[in-house]
Amino acid sequence: MHAPFDLTMEEEGEIVAGEDGDGGLSNLFERNKVWAERKTRSDPSFFRRLVGQQTPRYFWIGCSDSRVPATEIVDLDPGEMFVHRNVANLASASDLSFSAALQFAVDVLQVRHVIVVGHYGCGGISAAISGRANGKIGCWLNPVRKLCCSLSHSSSNDVLDPNILCELNVVAQVEALVLNPTIGAAWARQADLTLHGWVYGIGDGLLRSVCDPVTPLGRSEAVSSPKAQTNDSALF
Ligand SMILES: [Zn+2]
Question: How far does residue 62's CA lie from ligand 1's centre (Å)?
Fold first, then answer.
């Protein structure tokens, strides 16, 4: 979500019409048509191939933030990555939508990599720190708020750095995945499945790994603490 993040407003806002009178919706159809034609020109069988199957190797669990479009920032085509996004990229086993997507990705699509991707400047993280979020979003961000409070109590710093909480939230989601029954069952049947925790920098467009990849062999080891946010940690 975008920062700043004012969640004290009414839940439902007005739909503001754009200059073309429909909020720019017709423009989306035009852009879609141009995109589909461009794809077909560069690869005439592109869409026909996708009709019959999808065989993605990756399951991306990312934030809903419009600045972090999953497939675009890793330069993948449709069909190459299965995606689930929510505010602050949570991987909660109690979230039915997420759990269903994870089950489909692991059991049916048999992805090889499950990747939690946070991003610096996350409005959801900022809202959790500020404690300003209310309503459903406040409820949704409660796990992040709890993580924030636990860190504040163990730190001498008065205010937690949002980017540090962003990294630690990613690590917490990877830890949750380690304990997720779907992941456990996959590892029990010796599926080739690795968990990853990354953070995306909106300011430079780069992904960074914030914890070591977790495999069935490495699951007994604790997920490592976040690496320092440095340019050296940019892996991609
Ligand atoms: Zn976000």
Answer: 8
